[in-house]
């Protein structure tokens, strides 16, 4: 189902960047460009295979760019595109909500 046919904006959002790992990957990339290994060590429980798949999907969907440097040893960095960066407000709102929720539950 294409997101154009979905009436609920939350469903459309989750179709684009939902899942267990994509929001977390995007959150870390919002802090600045990262190498594969930097992302890998920051996210517990995420296999390298799944990380590779998720990064490819995020790149395909226009949220992340992959830049390969011609160096020895080879170096690759991932960075948010303008579309990916536009999610920063969403992450800021989520963080603020979680902090408020934690305070209420303490």
Automatic annotation (TrEMBL):
Record-level GO BP terms: regulation of DNA-templated transcription
SUPFAM superfamilies to which the protein is assigned, alphabetical: Winged helix' DNA-binding domain
Keyword DNA-binding: yes
Keyword DNA-binding belongs to the record: yes
MF (Gene Ontology): DNA binding
PROSITE patterns: HTH_HXLR
Coiled coil spans: none
UniProt KW keywords: DNA-binding, Transcription, Transcription regulation
Pfam family, one: HxlR
Residue ranges occupied by any HTH hxlR-type domain in the UniProt entry: 8-106
Protein name (record): HTH hxlR-type domain-containing protein
Native source organism of the sequence: Pedobacter antarcticus 4BY
